[in-house]
Structure formats: C-alpha cells, structure tokens
Design brief:
heterodimer, A: globular, B: mainly beta, six-stranded mixed beta sheet, four-stranded antiparallel beta sheet, 0% helix
Chain lengths: 114, 114
C-alpha cells in the first residue's frame, strides 16, 4: 500500500503559468481533500471531494480548481499562478464522511511562484 | 462553527522532560478532536483522536491527551521527551455534518534539547 502519493514533490513556476498537482490514493477512500500550509497559518482547506465526480469549495478556494474524474485521483489546478500561491500543498483522504474519520496525508508538494 | 487555538508557536524541552502542548477548542456541538504530527519534510500523521467515551486518549509513541469539557481543552502530553519527538504538532476539530472536514490550529513546533 502506497497510501496517498503526490506528484510533483517540488515545482517552480513563473507568475501567470499554470500547473496541475496530482494526488492519488490506493485505499479506496471516498473523501479527498486539498490543503495549503503556510508558516504560522496551519493547514487551510482549499477544496474537497465527497466522491467520484463531486467537488466542493473549502476555506480558501480562490485561484484553484479541482477535478475528481476517478475515485483514486484528485487533481488541483492553478490556471494563472500568483506569488501568493507559494506554499506547501497537501492532499489527504478519508474512508467516509463521519466526524470521527481519520484523514491520511500525502508527503506534500512544495510550490514556489516567482 | 468550530475553531482551535494553539497558544505559542514553539516549545523547547530537554530530553527526558515532560512534554505539554496546549490546545483549546470552540465547538457548537460535542467536539471530535485530533492531534496530528508532522516530521520534517513529511506529511501529517495521526497521533490520537477523541470521539466519544473515555476522556483520556492514548496515542502512538507514548503520547496521550485528555479531553476536558469544562475547560474546552485537549492538551497533548508525553512523560519523557525523546529526540525523535522533534516535529510540528497540530490540533484539529471535526466539523459538524457528514463530510469529515477538519479545522486545524496553527501548529506548535517542538524542539528537544540533548
């Protein structure tokens, strides 16, 4: 079991460029999440998905889009990157939607926007 | 609405000393509470969680936390710190509704001195 994997591990973008971050999980989890982590801010939820073909906005969705075409994959897109999107991005998944569910995290993607 | 407060951003202890990391929460419903740990350059992993039942929760690596409703607290402790405990620790509270979303605190960095 690989758990939750993220691609790429590190990326440098110029302002205005676009990119897609890929998250994959092999645990057959229904729920998936994208967070960003910034110093002193903790983790903030960008978007999440409660199942294949569904997505919803989180706390800080502006400037990001997501897609969940396959149950095991959750893609995060930046259409026009801005320096404010420099961050570490974490993907997570959980089995279901109960409040007691544990979220399982990937290793993160470090993004630098110049 | 749910929120979490982790006072202070950095705690330093000597190896073998007591570890105490504080977490206070606000929740409009009985809370589900989590502690996650992030080792350098890694994703988050679950240390322990409180859902219902026993208020003293034991987790991995010798950590435990006690849910105190009257104090709205869920502090994390370990009797004797080890060098390998150096990491960032996040307290989180589960949202209401069937989506297993979490609200994270800002995190506390634990340093362990030899």
């Amino acid at each position: 079991n690989a758990g939750v994997t993220q691609t790429p591990k590190f990326r440098v973008l110029k302002t205005g460029q676009s990119m897609t971050l890929l998250c994959a999980q092999d645990m057959n989890h229904e729920y998936m999440y994208w967070y960003r982590q910034d110093p002193g801010m903790g983790l903030r939820l960008i978007h999440y998905s409660v199942g294949e073909g569904t997505t919803a906005k989180g706390e800080v969705p502006d400037g990001y889009n997501v897609s969940r075409l396959k149950k095991q994959n959750f893609l995060l897109g930046l259409e026009s990157a801005a320096p404010s999107q420099t961050s570490v991005y974490f993907c997570a998944s959980s089995l279901g939607g109960r409040r007691s569910e544990t979220q399982y995290f990937g290793p993160g993607t470090r993004l630098l926007v110049l | 609405a749910q929120s979490v407060t982790q006072l202070g951003s950095h705690v330093s202890v000597s190896e073998g000393a007591l570890v105490l990391l504080r977490c206070n929460y606000s929740s409009s419903v009985p809370p589900y509470l989590f502690w996650y740990v992030q080792y350098p350059n890694q994703g988050l992993q679950l240390l322990l969680k409180y859902t219902t039942g026993a208020t003293l929760v034991k987790g991995i690596n010798g950590f435990e936390a006690e849910f105190k409703k009257s104090e709205t607290s869920f502090h994390l402790t370990k009797p004797s710190a080890h060098m390998s405990d150096a990491a960032e620790y996040f307290c989180a509270v589960g949202h209401t509704g069937a989506n297993s979303k979490l609200t994270f605190g800002k995190g506390i960095t634990l340093s362990v001195r030899p």
